[in-house]
Amino acid sequence: MEMKELEENKGVLSVSVVKKILVFKKSSVETVAATMPGCSSTSMPIDPSRAKKRRKLSSYTETHSEKETIDDMNAELGDEGQAQHIDGRWTIKCGSCQKVLSSKTDRKPATRVSYFIRTHYNSCEKKSREVKQTNIQPTIDSKFNMLEKKSAVEAGVGRNEEDEATIDTFDDYAIDCYSEMENVDVNMADITETRATTELGVDDAEDWVPVEDVEAFISSDDEDIYQSMDDPDGDVRNLKLQYEEIDPLCIRLHTLLSRGTAFTRSGILYKYLDDVSKSLIDPNHEWSADTLSMFETLKHLGGERTVNFIVGPKWFGLSTGKMDPDNVKINLGGPSKTTREKHSQGYTTDSGFIKPWLTSFLAMENNHMSIKPIVETKDVKVFPVYLCNDSTALKAGLQFDDQKNEVVGLEQSVRLPYVKENPNPDTDYLKKEMVSESNITMVSTCDGNIGLPVSVKYKSKSGKSGEEMECQFIEEVKMMQCCMDCIKKGLSTNQILPTNIIEKCVPSPLVEQCIMNDEECMKKNKECMNCKVAQCLSRCQECIQTGKQCVKNVVMVYSTDCESGNKKAFKTIIDKRDSGRLDKDLMFGVMPDPPHVGKSLKCSFANWPLILTDHERGFLAMIQNIRQNDSKLQKMLPLESVLNKDRMDVLSVLQLTSRDVVDYLRTLNHVVYSVVPDSFRIDYPRQSNKKGLYPHPTGIDVAGSDLLVLEYRPDDFVTRLLKIRLKVPAEVSVLCEKPVCTSLVCVEDLALMLQPSVGIHVHCFNGSVVLKPEKLRTKKDLTSKLQEYGLPTNGTVPHLRNRLSTYISRLQKKYTGMKSDISMVQLQPDAISPSCISKMDSKSIIASSDQSRKVFVVELQLDGVTVVGSSSVLFSYEQDWKSIMSMCVVDCRLVHFCKGIGVVVTHLETHTSTTIVRCDGQVCLYPYKEGIVLAIGNQIFTHSLEPESQCILLAGTGEDGNDNGPAEKSSFGQLSGICVEFGKNIYITDSQMGTIKLITTVTGSAEYLENLGKLFDAFGIHEKHKRKGKKPIGEAVAIMAEVNHYFENTVNNVKSLKGTTRATYGSDGTISPQTLESVGMMHKELRRLHLITSEVQAFAGSDVDLTYMNTLQVENLHATGHFKAEFPMMLEYSRNISNTVKESIKRAVPWAAFYYTNRESYYPVLNFTNRLSDLCVMPKQTPARWLMSEETALMRDWARLNGKSVRQQTVRQGTTKFRPGTLPLNLYKDCSPLPTTKIEVMASAREAAVRGSKKGSHVVSKTRKKPIEVQDPSHMEHDESDSESETEVSRNEQVYYDTDDEETDVKDGTVDKLVEWSSVPKELNFLTRTHTRSGRQVRVKSFA
């Protein structure tokens, strides 16, 4: 840069100190330059060897030829300047500004002078009057004073002893001088006053040589460079200043780097910029490990496209010869794909312990500052750990691995020889060996500081039996307890450790005496707890022989999910351990995974109406129902937590069991829930519980664990018997069709349906009324039936069965001869004509007859063909009783509703009657606790039957509606049926709104959720970032004791209620026996762990955190893998899991970058003494030989033909997501007008009876042996009568709907005109028209 520009203060950003050295070689002079660090993109530090060489270059004296040259130059200069030769440099002192400037390197003195005058003196003389002179900054001034002093001393001017020391130490001082000048802010005013020598111009770029040449020069010991030191024309210039314009970004980066905080040489930003800059100069630059690791993470998180965009095209499309900095195209720059793949993570498709993972865990564990071993001596060092195991599904299929030249997808990989020998393999073999899931075992320290997967097992569908899982669990525990030295010595095959390490790393045998000198232990000759665990903590024999410290782990707990194979393996291990048949070096406990057990309990609560405290029904949909109508609960409970879509979601369980939700549920009284139709679940397969399918339910009663309902069809004049399976949602099936019935009573397995003035229809909902002797297998059963019917019981089983069959046949013929309908109760006498019936006990009913004005007791008995009812008069109507509409028996009292009077209580012994409620209309009664529950109009009341008591409103606002939720805010239409289950749960039918509803409390549900929350709390399972602190193991044991006691009592109460000792399941109203067993096992194993940690001296004060005794870490690992591939095959999964594990290590171990991807998932780096580069990584493996193209094609074709996978839907997709096109759930709220039509079932029954009498016979009922499959409402016409079209006409006739809207005339319930098919000619069948029972005109074409 010209001095003119410097004086005008134009564009000068920094000053760099440059050292120029002349290199004498082969009679040529070559100039090289080195810019000080921080002043240019290329930097070269000054070292002592350079200073030594410079002293050699400066040690010669001025010769005679140099003096002559100075005289010639001074003659040319005159007053314009003065030439000098100082310290091996040609300089000219300006006569105008008095500056000493270094001249151009030229042997001709005249040329030097002319160049000086042209480039400096003329401009300096012109501007000297205009430029204001200022003092230089003290720092620069002092530095150059030292430089001048050094030059003078070396020239021999006034040299003394101090000056000799100055010369010796000057080079070190010069280095400090240069480094300090990097941070000096240079002012233009200061530059004009500087007394440093300044170059009179800068040569062209070709005059300067790269820094690498200077490095080579300074580091060389070649003495040839000093051969020309005595040359009289040798121009050697040691020091000069070069003014150079520097980018502001470089200044800022240098400032940040000098601070050493945010921008450091060990950080990823510095390393990345350093690598990018070097790669732009040298395309063959070797990228640093940290930069490659950063791009590996970028690919893992964002994919290959993200990496490509960051790097840019670079030299894409160019030949190798054109890969130079002038042609590069980058965005941010980075390593190429080939380079990244060369240094990428390896993988393995074999099953077993993966050596790099296990050794990495041991290294991290041993070098972590805060992880404390339970035993640490000079001989042994033992850490306590947990093992957690969980599986994830893989897509079954075969793939060719081009990196290992094998077909992957079976438990044993297939190589080329097998493919050639088996072009058409056995399908049974492939089916047996096909991998369908990956089983991962993760190890974590007991304090939770480190967790890492160590083992992968690829399993087929047949590979999870109890025996196989037991062997796997024990093998993994033994491998995990091998010492670090033995594991490092193990020779892995395809990254998998051999199992023979277990045989080599054997703990040393113990002495017979108790290791703790426990007198009681030695006296009783029985091992104490210290003796039982001592061998697990002892030194292995290999380390004893080598004299090394034995660093090992001891497995405290093995935890996994509750699948049948795992549960069976756990039982076997516990049995062997308690009986002393388990190896003494194994002390681990087996623990069903707490999150899985908690999710199983939540699923039971979501799928089944459980029978809880005080026999209350409780289930998740009830909570959802409350939330939908309660704004306060909506704020506490997110919608996702009550949908039951994601069964694997732990967060929903935590939200559902929170203290606020449980306390709020306890404040609620009765709530109303719609059983039919289901109000919430819109995506289920049966489609049997949707709105509009059962518009007019009337009677209802409890039948064991189910409900039976009468559903009236006014268009058909029939009643359908519905069976409602109490599930969530309820499953509805049609059992049979009968003429119009008004009352329903369930006695044992029989459903009794009253058809007024006709009789009582019978349907056996758990079998058949007619006895089938062939189903009686044992002699005991046959003998029992023969005794019941009064028949002989002697003979063999075939003789007994034949005798019973003969009896049934004769009885059937008898009823046929009497023209009796065996589907109805055979009343004796048969003239009682019941008008209302009610259950009295398990063998009898009470019937009232408005015709005879009497009340009867009917004893029921099965005779093998039908039901026989023996009736006897109980009492007669009082004079003002017109008709009994409904009744029930409560403690020897008959409570009945008399039309026009109200509710009357009649004592069955004294036959005295008392009216307790005056009302009219439609009233339904049922026993409830100590009194009754009444459905009057559209409200529900309770009454204690005490003389002075009043009706208490239970539910209903008194207005017509269909609102659920809190009972006081609910509304109904026409209540036509009511029943009570277990004296607690009230079921009602609303024939106007077409609903069947449940009314109960939620206190039991709150208690169930509270205990479920306690289970999670005992193991420290919490919402993210809401940990409450570590739970002491003693407190956790006490909590689990409470939880186990609660669930055991709940199940036992249900068994006692139902009078059974068998195992009960969800359909019985309890959790499954497997889940109950898991809860008990958790309590037992946790109590054992507490005993070990409290009694064994080695574990005293050990940090045991139960939070990490679960598989949530493994599930998170699976979730990360599913993020990359939702349903991967085995090969893809093995590659992904390897990268996922390495990325997991990067999150915890310090390296050049901070692993920050999300605010919620970012945690501080743990305190490790080792860095990422110190840990073992899985190296890439290459095959023994590369296959030919023909062989590769053969392998690919074999995999495609014998194991091509199919597109599959994941399990989570089916259970956690709604179908495509589902709208927001709030849009499915029914806003259609409420029905206003009231149903008169009694009048319809009389009309049906008249209709049957006009036909001359009783209406024959239609009984269906199998439940009727209900058509999907989404494919039905809007007119509900269309759904009956299949039953209205014969199956061999095709129906065509007519476009004529002519109405049919119906009189007295009969069709005015019917068309007889036989009277119409076949050729005119297409003209045949008739009306269905619903009144729709159809054309019928006969195909008979």
Can you put this structure into words, describing what you see?
- This protein has 1344 residues and is of the alpha+beta class.
- The protein is 34% helix and 21% strand.
- It contains 40 helices and 49 strands.
- The strands form 13 sheets. Strands 8, 9, 10, 13, 14, 15 and 16 form a seven-stranded mixed beta sheet that branches. Strands 40-19-43-42-41 form a five-stranded antiparallel beta sheet.
- β28 (836-839) and β29 form a beta hairpin.
- The longest helix is centred in the last third of the chain and has 26 residues, at 1033-1058.
Defining key terms:
1344 residues; alpha+beta; seven-stranded mixed sheet; five-stranded antiparallel sheet; 40 helices; elongated; disordered N terminus
Shape: elongated
Mean pLDDT: 77
Total strands? 49
Query: Could you name the ranges where pLDDT drops below 50 across 5 or more consecutive residues?
Result: 1-64, 131-140, 165-240, 511-517, 1254-1344
Quote the distance from N terminus to C terminus.
Answer: 112 Å
Which percent bin holds the helix content?
25-40%
- Which strand-content bin applies to the residues? 15-25%
- Round the Cα radius of gyration to an integer and report it: 48 Å
Q: Tell me which oligomeric state these chains represent.
A: single chain
